[in-house]
Amino acid sequence: IIMMIVSIPKVKDTCPSATEANASQRQNSAMAVILTLYILVSLFSIVYAARMLSRPGISSEIRDIFMKKHVLYSLSFIIIWTLNLLNTYHALYRDIGKKSLEAEGLKAEGYSLQYIRLPSGLEVQVRVNEDTNEAQFTVFQIISVFASLSTGLVMGIIRCFEP
User: Fold this and answer.
1) Structural contact between residues 33 and 54, judged by C-beta atoms closer than 8 angstroms
2) Rounded (to 5) percent helix, strand, coil in the chain
3) 123 belongs to a structural domain
4) In 3D, which of 14, 18, 25, 16 has the Cα closest to residue 95?
5) CB within 8 A of 129, min separation 6: which ones?
6) pLDDT class for 20, splitting at 50, 70, 90?
7) What is the pLDDT of residues 100-141, one digit of tens each?
8) Which domain holds residue 148?
9) Are 39 and 82 in contact (CB under 8 A)?
10) What domain count does the chain have?
11) Which residue ranges does UniProt annotate as crossing the membrane (predicted)?
């Protein structure tokens, strides 16, 4: 939340187009808040589950199985969504203080910074080659996409080891 509050006044410094920049910054700020809350709720659920399972009436074997499974699920989701959170913070802060230098270098290489809308509805800033009209994603964006797509695979692997 603090990073979001710090980033809002710097919108004009980070993105070239004010209307697209404001929309992108709002989306990234909202995503940062939502993912942070998601991670905090996930951590709270681990503590709450441990507290609820510590009551009498539940065998220690069942308690251990449930807690291991719940912690594994929660931690895997936390790791996956932390990678998305990293991309969100990178999008919020990557251009602070170097807007003009990067724009000059990109123009010399035939690239421009453009906003594209992903199928999810989010707008992201990417480098676009003006000759071939190809988008070039950052490493953080690629990692974020693969992390999101791997959620089902990771959950399937975890479920394979359930008793």
Assistant:
1) no
2) 70, 10, 20
3) no
4) 14
5) 110, 111, 136
6) low
7) 555 566 666 777 777 777 655 667 777 787 777 777 777 888
8) 2-97+139-160
9) yes
10) 1
11) 30-50, 71-92, 139-161
